Amino acid sequence: MTRFDLNILGCGSATSTLRHLPSCQVVNVRDNLFMLDCGEGAQLEIRRSRLKFSRLNHIFISHLHGDHCFGLPGLLSTLALLGKTGTVTVHTFADGAQLFASWMDYFCRERPFDLQFHIIGNTHETVFENDSVTITSFPLRHRIPCVGFRIDEKPKLRHINPEALQLHNVPRAAINSLRKGLDYVTPEGLVIPNDTLTTPADRARSYAYCSDTTPSDRVAAAVEGVDWLYHEATYGNECQPQAHHRYHSTAHEAAIIARDAGVKNLIIGHFSSRYADETVLLNEAREVFPSTILANEQLHIDLNTDLTRPSAYH
């Protein structure tokens, strides 16, 4: 099964506290690291998570509030000090690209890697694609332009049955086409069906990240059917008016989005510092959507599994 992991590096809101750091996550797809937001403390949490700086090449910024991007200049500076080479691409809004570029040119002009900026808009669009995944952005409802990100694995290749290959004298040169689902034709013209020689591919999985937003039908539509959804749940039910005034969601509302979108598993985060214990938020979410867990720094989740298997996260 191919690697598809989530690492929570920060799940607090607004400011760093003794309990939580501002927003930051890293998704590991086949040992390629994709960072979603970069709040303060991101680089320290990367070290604590034993993630490799050298594997980080793409950073996606959901919006330009400080708790989602103030860690970026320090992280990029550290990458330079560590001698990272190749290209680092920051996916952000146009004004963010201008701001971050000026910071880096002032503080870290000499760097061994090529820093590039990919300009995103407050729209639904493909922002990255390779052989493994497609990453799309979708608009959220916040006080400033803000997007969520959805990561969809591409269809995986079928598994080879070595015993069947040996039985039918299938050459190794045919393996690539077999994994793609093609039949094998012998030199004599005999067609051996693909399902005789292979077993079904692992199911492609999906993950969506909703940073700061009020509840929205368009958000539910954008994350429809994902295996894992991270949705902000800054407040509990008692603070709903305050949540909406600040364009945030309650835990109960995050759970409604998960239910209506038909997702399989929900992670809630972006907690207000008013909560010394987020259990109340968890309980409010589980009343609507039982397959919910709380985010926490250093939480690691194998996105190939589900909450029905406790080994999915630790």
SSE diagram, text form:
Blueprint: E1 4-10, E2 24-29, E3 32-38, H1 42-48, E4 56-60, H2 72-81, E5 87-92, H3 94-107, E6 114-119, E7 125-129, E8 133-139, E9 147-153, E10 159-160, H4 162-167, H5 175-179, E11 184-185, E12 191-192, H6 194-197, E13 198-199, E14 206-210, H7 217-222, E15 228-232, H8 240-245, H9 251-261, E16 265-269, H10 279-286, E17 292-294, E18 300-302
Parallel strand pairs: 3-4, 4-5, 5-6, 14-15, 15-16, 16-17
Antiparallel strand pairs: 1-2, 1-18, 2-3, 7-8, 8-9, 9-14, 10-13, 11-12
Helix pairs in contact: 2-3, 9-10
Structure report:
It is a single chain. By secondary structure, the chain is of the alpha/beta class. It folds into 2 domains: 4-156 and 202-312, Ribonuclease Z/Hydroxyacylglutathione hydrolase-like (Metallo-beta-lactamase, Chain A), CATH 3.60.15.10; 159-199, no CATH class. The protein has 10 helices and 18 strands. It has helices spanning 42-48, 72-81, 94-107, 162-167, 175-179, 194-197, 217-222, 240-245, 251-261, 279-286, and strands at residues 4-10, 24-29, 32-38, 56-60, 87-92, 114-119, 125-129, 133-139, 147-153, 159-160, 184-185, 191-192, 198-199, 206-210, 228-232, 265-269, 292-294, 300-302. It has a 7-stranded mixed beta sheet with strand order 6-5-4-3-2-1-18. Strands 7-8-9-14-15-16-17 form a 7-stranded mixed beta sheet. A two-stranded antiparallel sheet has the order 10-13.
